[in-house]
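fyi for ur records
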Amino acid sequence: MENKWGSLTNNNVIACVERNTGKKLTGLCIKRNSYINRVFELEDARTKERYIAKFYRPGRWSRQMILEEQALVFHLKELELPVIIPLKINGEALFEFGGIYFTLSPKMGGRALDEFDDERWEEIGRVIGRMHLATEKKTASSRVTWSPQNATAKHLETILASKTVAPDFDKALENAVNAFIERFEPFFTNAAMFLIHGDIHRGNFIHRPAEGIYVIDFDDICIGPAVQDLWMLLPDTVENSKNEIKCFLDGYTTFRPFNLKNLELIHALRVMRMAHFAAWCAVQKGEPHFERSFPEWGKPKYWN
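which gave:
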């Protein structure tokens, strides 16, 4: 992994983008923050237009999975949803450098969203409702199904295989996660599952003046319940977020119904997110600067 990432020097990034897209770039190459992938800002030598080159982490997504992500955002764009699509060069939007897939998109800056008022909650509800209306019939995918038996079981395998669990905690962790899967999988079996964004949180929205809210970062699309694209936005528990949920659903149900029974899945989805994060950390553990960013992860206190 690190050997492949090490090949992404500024010169190589510029050269491979020029070679694959036919664009002539300046020497500007600014590395942007990204935990999972490698992202660079580049500049067109002729127009001075700025681009974002996104290099996907090798081994995490197959070509088919990335093409499915692209097909979704192109479809949403055709329906005039507020998403950012990659550039197509000679009909292609996915390129490769040394075994690393990458895309090129126009740079579209925007303001991060902080606190939401009632109007903002409704606006976000309308955006997610429109998005789900466009995807609700997509029930098959190369992506993971976001249920305990599928996603959480795979995350447990990843964690245990990484040998990062503190001594004397591995068996307890395995037992606890398996008990969780057995208890909560039936709740997901009875829920409507379809293609969703999968990672809706405040950091995956930007606001562009005179244009409104854009949804970004479709890396983690999956087959899952509609509520997965709501719960991480909530400021507190379901019981303490009743007004936020009401305003969100006022906007959401403008476009499609929302089964309120889905809200019962949130407690399980929180546990699934913990397992997802632990598996992500187990994979990232060997990356430079990981321990500086997550100093407590993997220690006995964390596992306890």
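The first helix runs from residue 2 to 6. thats all i got for now
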